Amino acid sequence: MSEDMKFIVEKLNGEPFNRKLNLISFDALEPLQLLQVLNDVLSEIDAQHKVDLRDEAPEDTAVRMFSFLRVLKYKPKTEQGSLNTFRVGLVQGDKLIVHPVLCWLLQRMSDLKKRAYLGRFLVKIDVPLEILQDDLVQSTFGTYESLLAEFKDAHKATERIKSSSGTASEVRKDIATMEEERRQIRGRIQRQKKKVHDNVPNHEVALVSATARRQEQERERELAEQKVDQKNQLLHIEQRFQRARKQLRELQTANMGCTAEALIQQLEEENIGNAYTVKEKLPKELESRRQLRDTLKQVVDEPALTQDDFDALESKLRSTSESCQKIHEMRMQKQKPGDDKLSLFRQQAAVVSRKKASAAQTLAERRDEIGSLEQELEEKKSKLDGVDKSFFEPNGMMPLMTKVRNEHDVMRMKKREIQAVQSENGIRERTLDLLKEYEETLKLEVAQVEEEHGTAGIRTTQSKMEKVSSKKTDIDEKKERLLKEMSVMAEEMKRITTDKKDKLTPLLASVRSLRAET
Predict the structure, then answer these.
(1) What is d(CA 246, CA 243) in angstroms, rounded to the nearest whole number?
(2) Which long-range contacts (CB under 8 A, 24 or more apart) does 403-409 make?
(3) Contact 43, 113 (CB under 8 A)
(4) How far is Cα of residue 57 from the mean position of the Cα atoms in its chain?
């Protein structure tokens, strides 16, 4: 804690506070003086907090400091994580609460100044949901949010520019480097000019020709760009022409069979609906919104209600309800028999008025729906720009419909074939199951007959013998193949031996004659 106090005193004695404090005088500050020091530090971060606490109510001071610390994202370190201790200690100027806040603020002055500046613009206004139901408030709040987003983007761009821009020395260094490069380029140009003057005859004519060639190349590029632009413009004009022609066809189709009397009647109906909306519906809605606004304003202006105020209002509401009930009963007693017709007419008029309001509401909803559908239709049309429009012509879908119909016929024929194969497969599986059951039955009957004749197991023995016989046949076939292969190998060995013998006979005869001579 002493280290924190030393740090706080050191910072307060420096710029821009210049307090001239020491540890003893700082520790001896009164709670109000300590709070004033804290407020001065806050005012250095944000000038809006430059206030003399003696001229401000303690409640206002507490609310202002709490709100600003929340904007600065200060997290108090309390023993049990309770904020009540922190709030009470801050209001009372407790050293154990104020000193950590001062230390935290003085350590981050530059960052907190930026955060306070951003907090003035980025902390959203808390608007209750009931008030946001109003269209004007909702549109204003949407504009407010869009402006917040624009401010964020502008601030990010500014910070990015500040971080990317170099210092003055770096700028001077870059300028000096560019000046040196310009000097070198000028020297190269002079050397090239001298070389051209010395080595190229009629260099003036060649220079004029090169300049003319470069200008023609630039002109060629400009003409190519103009050609591309004109092609794009022609494409856009053709698309607009196609849309206009399609709209004309739609209007002609919609107005087909339409007479002047029908158009006048339609316009009269629209005029009646619009007149009711303007003269009756909108004024009522406007008056209801004004009443709601006045009520909300009155609620906001009134002080906070206590439980006694609620009880008084409930008793007043009960007494008013009882008075209304008594007045209604007195009116019913004084009502004359002839007034029933008037009440009937009043009820009918009320029913008609409600139906009229409901119809106007339905009309407004249908118009909004038509507007949204038209907007969606325009978006779909814009997406279809550049697409082949022949598909959307009256006869454009006939080839596709014919192809789909043929594919459908082929699909139905394949389905019938699949069903026939499936039914046939089912019959075969059922036949196989019946044959297996019949085979099991025959086996049981044969076993019973064998037991009756005392030859039980002969069928099993016979099947085993048949298996052994088939195996023996296979073995005999293998032996026969092996003997044939061995006989072929013996014949081959015999032939090779004969050949070798025929080759060795003359040699043996010569060897014998040589021995006889020796």
Answers:
(1) 5
(2) none
(3) no
(4) 49
Q: Is 141 exposed, middle or buried (0-12, 13-18, 19+ CB in 10 A)?
A: middle
d(CA 68, CA 90): 13
- Supply the pTM of this predicted model: 0.33
For 128, the 3-state DSSP assignment is coil
Total residue length of the chain = 518
Say how far apart CA 439 and CA 311 lie, in whole Å: 96
pLDDT in tens, the chain (518 residues): 577 778 878 877 887 777 777 878 877 888 888 888 888 888 888 777 787 877 877 777 877 888 778 777 777 776 554 677 777 777 777 778 888 888 888 888 878 777 777 777 777 777 777 677 777 777 787 888 888 888 878 877 777 776 665 556 677 888 888 889 888 988 888 888 777 777 777 777 777 888 888 899 999 999 999 999 898 888 888 888 888 887 788 777 766 666 777 778 878 878 887 787 788 778 888 888 888 888 877 777 766 667 777 778 888 888 888 888 888 777 766 665 555 556 666 677 777 777 877 877 787 788 788 878 888 877 777 776 655 555 555 555 677 778 888 888 889 889 889 988 988 888 888 888 888 888 888 878 877 777 777 666 666 777 777 888 888 888 888 888 888 888 888 888 888 888 888 888 888 888 888 878 76
Paired tokens of 18: 């210049």
Q: What are phi and psi of 493, to 5 degrees?
A: -65, -40
Q: In angstroms, rounded to a whole number, what is the distance separating the alpha carbons of residues 156 and 499?
A: 103
| Interatomic CA distance for residues 137 and 369, integer angstroms | 23
SS3 state of residue 1: coil
**% helix / strand / coil in the chain, to the nearest 5?**
85, 0, 15
Q: What are phi and psi of 448, to 5 degrees?
A: -65, -45
Using alpha carbons, select from 154, 69, 161, 76 the residue that is nearest to residue 115. 69
Q: Which of 286, 288, 296 is nearest to 128 (CA)?
A: 296
